[in-house]
Amino acid sequence: MAEFEDGKDQGALRTIGELGEALGIKTHVLRYWEDQFPQLKPLKRSGGRRYYRPEDVALVREIDRLVNRDGYTLRGARTALKDFGSAVEAPVEAPPAPATLFEPSGRAESPAAETVSPEVIARLRAIRTRLAEALTA
């Protein structure tokens, strides 16, 4: 995730200025990308102020990598990111009830089984899907 040095929590909403400064992208470019990439939909509050969620920040970083580092055209980046939005917006399955985390003997399946957040699970599933698609291409 981008390094923000503003004292806010990493999961906090970011303004377009904060995001642009942290990633080195001008605000007019971020606004243009909102038109070009349908997955990029920051929250808009009164007066049209944009607030980027952590998943928006991740998407902007991916767009920046594809376009400015890997040399993709905007059309190519859109194609490459087709599944990114669905992975971010996909409903997250509820974690199993605590009773299913334990074996009948009462021991936990693994020490980390109880600490994995639903967001991490959703991201890992999205990565697994993208890897499987890459292998079949």
Describe the structure.
- With 137 residues, this protein is mainly alpha-helical.
- The protein contains 6 helices and 3 strands, in the order βααββαααα.
- It has helices spanning 16-23, 27-36, 54-69, 74-80, 84-89, 118-136, and strands at 14-15, 43-44, 50-52.
- Strands 1-3-2 form a 3-stranded antiparallel sheet.
- A hairpin with a 5-residue loop joins β2 (43-44) and β3.
- It is globular, with a radius of gyration of 18 Å.
- The model is unreliable at 88-92 and 98-108 (pLDDT under 50).
Features:
137 residues; three-stranded antiparallel beta sheet; 6 helices; globular
Give the helices and strands, then pairings.
Blueprint: E1 14-15, H1 16-23, H2 27-36, E2 43-44, E3 50-52, H3 54-69, H4 74-80, H5 84-89, H6 118-136
Antiparallel strand pairs: 1-3, 2-3
Helical residue percent band: 40-55%
Task: Name the overall outline.
Answer: globular
> Structural class of the secondary elements?
mainly alpha
H/E order of the elements? EHHEEHHHH
Assess the beta-strand content as a share of residues. 5-15%
Mean pLDDT: 79
Strand order in the largest sheet: 1-3-2
Gyration radius over CA: 18 Å
Count of helical segments?
Answer: 6
Write a brief structural summary.
Helix content is 48%, strand content 5%. The protein has helices at residues 16-23, 27-36, 54-69, 74-80, 84-89, 118-136; strands at 14-15, 43-44, 50-52. The model is unreliable at 88-92 and 98-108 (pLDDT under 50).
